[in-house]
């Protein structure tokens, strides 16, 4: 079984603080897809409440090229068993808005990463994926490597997929995401740099076609932050949970 992949799922499976590990589905149909996603997540940051959001999605695919709210990608290799993808994709952070005393003076931007992704089908519903990312917008020059294994079940067009993996973040990316620079330090908030970190995660996703054009999708994910991250003066939780539901319509 090819892994669950629709334009709306591409955004729903983006974790809060690590990059997605999977490439797009090789046989995803060409054309325009519009959707909407509702999300809820716990916040690991001090002074940040748990978050809910509702936002639109858009994706246009023509052959190996896809352009949308999850970035611009090109499939270098397309087959039923192997997909190799490259592109430029956005990275979001909960620190884009920091209007609380605990996070005063700390603000991050949406950044862009160069992506090289590999997705391999092993048969029997099993698959694996690897994504390498390099920040290219001049904010931190960090890197990330995300590896994941998955098991999927397809029954009467209903898809269920279990995923487990880990993300390695370089010291530059982890400082930008979890740390405090010298210029951001305060009397009650010391400068802190986590160094290289590894973040394990697990997730469950579902996809259910409601018609030839309309698809309903859900996703639940948990990330487990290591002590080098939770020691940061701006981090309050070691486990981060998120859930999403979404609809997409293919034109």
Low-confidence stretches: 9-14, 21-27
Order of helices and strands: HEEEEEEEEEHEEHE
Q: What is the count of DSSP helices, taking H or I runs of 4+ residues?
A: 3
Major beta-sheet overview: 12 strands, antiparallel, barrel
Termini distance? 25 Å
- Name the CATH superfamily classification: monomeric porin ompg
| Overall number of strands | 12
Q: Architecture in CATH?
A: Beta Barrel
Strand content: over 45%
Number of domain modules: 1
What shape does the CA trace take?
globular
Task: Record the strand order, biggest sheet.
Answer: 1-2-3-4-5-6-7-8-9-10-11-12
Q: Any idea of the CATH topology? A: Porin
Structural class: mainly beta
Tell me roughly what share of residues is in helical segments: under 10%
Q: Return Rg in Å.
A: 18 Å
Please tell me the overall pLDDT.
Answer: 89
CATH classification, class level: Mainly Beta
């Amino acid at each position: 079984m090819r892994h669950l992949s629709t334009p709306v799922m591409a955004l729903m499976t983006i974790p809060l603080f690590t990059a997605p590990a999977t490439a797009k589905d090789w046989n995803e149909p060409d054309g325009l897809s519009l959707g909407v996603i509702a999300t809820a997540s716990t916040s690991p940051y001090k002074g940040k409440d748990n978050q809910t959001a509702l936002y639109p999605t858009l994706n246009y695919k023509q052959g190996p090229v896809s352009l949308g709210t999850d970035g611009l990608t090109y499939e270098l290799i397309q087959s039923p068993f192997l997909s190799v993808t490259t592109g430029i994709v956005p990275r979001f952070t909960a620190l884009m808005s920091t209007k609380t005393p605990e996070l005063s003076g700390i603000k991050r931007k949406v950044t862009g990463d160069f992506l090289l992704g590999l997705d391999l089908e092993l048969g029997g519903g099993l698959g694996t994926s690897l994504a390498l990312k390099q920040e290219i917008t001049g904010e931190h020059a960090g890197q990330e490597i995300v590896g994941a294994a998955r098991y999927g079940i397809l029954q009467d067009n209903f898809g269920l997929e279990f995923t487990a993996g880990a993300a390695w973040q370089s010291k530059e990316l982890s400082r930008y995401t979890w740390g405090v620079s010298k210029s951001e330090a305060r009397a009650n908030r010391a400068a802190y740099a986590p160094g290289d970190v590894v973040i394990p995660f697990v997730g469950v996703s579902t996809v259910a076609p409601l018609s030839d054009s309309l698809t309903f999708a859900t996703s639940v994910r948990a990330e487990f932050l290591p002590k080098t991250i939770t020691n940061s003066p701006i981090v309050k939780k070691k486990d981060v949970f998120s859930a999403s539901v979404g609809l997409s319509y293919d034109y």
